[in-house]
Amino acid sequence: MVVMDEVPDSVLDEAARRFALLSDLTRLKIVRALHTCGECSVSKIAEEAGATLPNVSQHLARLLAGGIVRRKRKGRLVLYSVADPTVEDICDVVCTSVLTRAAADIG
User: How is residue 59 annotated by DSSP?
Assistant: First the structure.
């Protein structure tokens, strides 16, 4: 386990970039779609995320550059998947926290 006060600024900078990538609703929907289907085409991701193909393509380019997703070719088809499984863990922790807090506010 990493001790937070021992993390160098360069690592915090990279962590901030990753959090920034995940701070967009459409990108989170893309990660959720990839979690659900494993490997998906852009059209399938767009359908699952409720977004347009051009919009999803732009977000996938950012996620790809940030190391969050990967892509591979199968003939003419390009398939995307989550490259870093810790991203799913982060989303799970944050979403669970949000749901727990909402339930406590209601109850």
Answer: H
